[in-house]
Amino acid sequence: MPKLLLATGNKAKLRELESLLRELPYQLITPDEAGIITEVDEVGHSLEANAALKATTLAAKSQLLTLADDSGLEVEALGGKPGVLSARYAGANATDSDRIDRLLTQLKDIPWGKRQARFRCVIAIASPGKQAELFSGDCDGLITLEPRGETGFGYDPIFYLPRLEKTMAQLSLEIKNQISHRGQATRKAITLLKSLVKKVQQSP
Ligand code: ITT
Fold it and tell me: Is it the case that residue 156 has pLDDT exceeding 80?
């Protein structure tokens, strides 16, 4: 079976990707199994640029077909911030709870009707020495007044989904994957991954 490196240092993201990709005819390889450190300087100014950078850099390092994910939260009242800086929003060594506190403080005067936000995810797939192919997904919601729920990661406890009347952190991993930005982007990428497997099988 061909190998696919899931190039993320975020364990919760890794679990979601493993679940989304588990039916595919690929052996999914974690960074630990490949013996690589996934840290890449995310110098790009967009999720697209950073996803491509992570996938091409780590494909070159591992010599494996590589999938990388760059994602973020865009808050309308903050003009789309933290966006591409979502992971670094409260400084380099901050925790998920530090980032949530910072965001809730920034939004303290914003009323419930104006707390629209969007999760965006860009998945990049790259073979060693090749350009990355990109797939995106998004998911709309509202930023709550306080955290609720225990599942997921990152900003999930303050991301409310009106249709489900729950935060993202009140959903099982399976339901989150059905509706999330990452689920949507990954399902688009699966079409490419399936065609790449066929090519490998057909080559002599
Ligand atoms: P890798 O770069 O190693 O994949 P990372 O956590 O640094 O791990 P990103 O650079 O893509 O990942 O940063 C995305 C940040 O956006 C992440 O740390 C969360 O704070 C937030 N985020 C992304 N997807 C999320 C999700 O599904 N639920 C909640 N927060 C999310």
Answer: yes
Judge contact between 154 and 117, C-beta under 8 A: no
Ligand 1 contact, 82 CB (< 6 A) = no
Q: Is the CB of 13 under 6 A from ligand 1?
A: yes
Q: What is the pTM of this model?
A: 0.96
Distance from the Cα of residue 84 to its chain's centroid: 11
- CA of 176 from ligand 1 middle (Å) equals 15
Instruction: Provide the domain limits for residue 186.
Output: 3-202
Per-residue model confidence (pLDDT) at position 203: 64
Phi and psi torsions of 103, nearest 5°: -65, -45
CATH classification at residue 39? 3.90.950.10
Query: Could you tell me if the CB of 83 is within 6 A of ligand 1?
Result: no
> Where in the sequence numbering do the catalytic residues fall?
70
Closest to 123 measured CA to CA, from 73, 189, 196: 189
Q: Rg of the chain's alpha carbons, rounded to an integer?
A: 17
